[in-house]
Amino acid sequence: MDALNGAAKLRLSHVGKRFALKDGAEAVALQDFSLDVRQGEFLVVVGPSGCGKTTVLNLLAGLELPSSGTLTLDDKAIAGPGAERGVMFQDYALFPWRTVWGNVEYGLVYGPAGRGLTADARSARVRHYVDLVGLEGSEQKYPHQLSGGMRQRVALARLMANEPEVLLMDEPLAALDAQTRLILQDELLRIWGQDRPASGRRTVVFITHAIDEAVFLADRVAVMTSQPGRLKALLDVPLPRPRNDDTRTHPDFQALSQHIWRLIRAEAYRATVT
Amino acid sequence: MSAAAPRTLAAQPPARFTDSRTLRMFVVPVLLILVWQAWTAAYPTVRTPTPLKVAGAAIDMIASGDLPGGVLQSLGRVFGGFAVAALIGVPLGLAMGTVRAVERNVDPLVESFRPIAAIAILPLAILWLGTGTAAAVAIVAYAAFFPIVVNTVAGVKRVDATLLRVAATMGIPRFTVLRTLIVPAALPSIGVGLRIALGVAWTAIIAAELAVGAKAGGGGSGGVGQMMFVFYAYSIELNRIVVCMIAVGVVAYALDRALRALLRGLMPWTH
């Protein structure tokens, strides 16, 4: 874990976010939220529904601005969306009128991520990521012709092709069935580069409500509570990488999952009855 | 999935005119013609159009070149007016859908003109543009404009907000988002607007020519609508009016099929 103790890549300090409600009242989505995300780390934010975890991600993406506090990337304030922070959304969000290939190349053709690339270099880049997510042979298919798992692979390739410094993922596996989900968890770690040394990995902030998913993927887990959304605990995940099916049966995996469950159980329970 | 031996597409015999599905398409029209013939045989009057008399008139009118000439004249005006409507309506709809200030200013205007039927601007069109093609095209353009603009705005408004967020997080410039995301996302709705507009345009041209081309004399030079007016007001040939009605319907059907095929070709992801 030593390589992970470097400088903060992303820093949230005392971030608050309030929304105006229709009746004039205010809802507090996030209160005094402080967190450093280290360079190359896989950080997972976990919490019950409505705890403001998506708000955290939208603030990092620059899609929303904080009501108070500051967010920085490499010590520079985040003032809006930027291509150096790539986002993967919950519902795939593929362009239905573009093929698999067309979706993956979109950011390179039209955005700053492809600036300075020749057409050949761009194709090579698209080729690389299409292959990396296992979609070779499906390049000319449209999203509606693909299964949920394949769509999410396209979304991942589209995100990775832009080679952003930071990957922001908002429950990207939530819409998938349980088996596909387990497979894509493995795939995600492989594509992220868990075999590589930590210094060669991209920084990831991953949102989920699934505790086992959080523990399986994360270097650290940020546990949130709701009303108002706050950071309840920040836990190291000492499980060795590369992680695989054996990880899921590891006693530490079970113990940590249980621990996180105890932290949010009361609230998760309340969320089902109110 | 069936228990029968699977048949590949290549193994199937080529579709023929005698295929039962093709024949079934004609069951209702043929029945209607038979009922029509029986009715006119039961209650004959001098001027009642019968299927046989109408068929005879149709052969005459096609042979003389009047009907094809009139249809072509009307079609030219329809395409002209439709093109004007699309060239103004689609960009305006995109601007209204994306820029709130434009919508706030233009929408009340569009919505207050929309209930005014195309035929109601006929006096103005004749006054300003005369009784020729220009007035007919203007009326068609007016009629076709509203479905195009309204459906384009609706299409832009229905663009999935998450897709716009995807583009924002990739740092795509604003106009590029319009061109590469909003336009294709709204295209199915724009296509619906164009189809409705083409139908409306064809309706409007007949109405416009009934009045606009009335002084142009006989033959096909005034368009189908004017031919119908002449058969009604001067020569009183009901059979020929029915031929014109059928021609209008057939052409409208063919136009819609052609536009649908074109739109399908433009949107391979929708099927």
What would you say this structure looks like, in words?
- The complex is a heterodimer of chains A (274) and B (271).
- With 274 residues, chain A is an alpha/beta fold.
- Chain A contains eight helices and ten strands.
- A six-stranded mixed β-sheet of chain A has the order 6-7-8-3-9-10, sandwiched between helices.
- The longest helix of chain A has 23 residues, at 251-273.
- Chain B has a single domain (57-270), classed as MetI-like fold.
- With 271 residues, chain B is mainly α.
- In chain B, helix 9 runs parallel beside helix 10 (224-233).
- Mean pLDDT of chain B is 87; it is low at 1-7.
- Chain A binds chain B through residues 61-63, 81-83, 85-87, 89, 91, 93, 95-98, 106-107, 110-113, 142-144, 162, 168, and chain B through 160, 162-163, 165-166, 168-173, 176, 180-181, 184-185, 187, 267-269.
Strand content of chain B: under 5%
Q: What series of H and E elements makes up the topology of chain B? A: HHHHHHHHHHH
Q: Beta fraction of the residues of chain A? A: 15-25%
Distance between the termini of chain B: 22 Å
Could you give me the name of the CATH homologous superfamily of chain B?
MetI-like
Keywords:
heterodimer; A: 274 residues; alpha/beta; Rossmann fold; 2 domains; 6-stranded mixed beta sheet; 4-stranded antiparallel beta sheet; B: 271 residues; mainly alpha; MetI-like fold; disordered N terminus
SSE topology sketch:
The complex is a heterodimer of chains A (274) and B (271).
Chain A: E1 8-20, E2 26-38, E3 42-46, H1 53-61, E4 68-73, E5 76-77, E6 85-88, H2 100-110, H3 119-132, H4 148-161, E7 166-170, H5 178-192, E8 203-208, H6 211-217, E9 220-225, E10 230-236, H7 245-249, H8 251-273
Parallel strand pairs in A: 3-8, 3-9, 6-7, 7-8
Antiparallel strand pairs in A: 1-2, 1-4, 4-5, 9-10
Chain B: H1 20-24, H2 27-42, H3 51-63, H4 66-98, H5 100-113, H6 122-129, H7 133-157, H8 161-169, H9 174-212, H10 224-233, H11 238-266
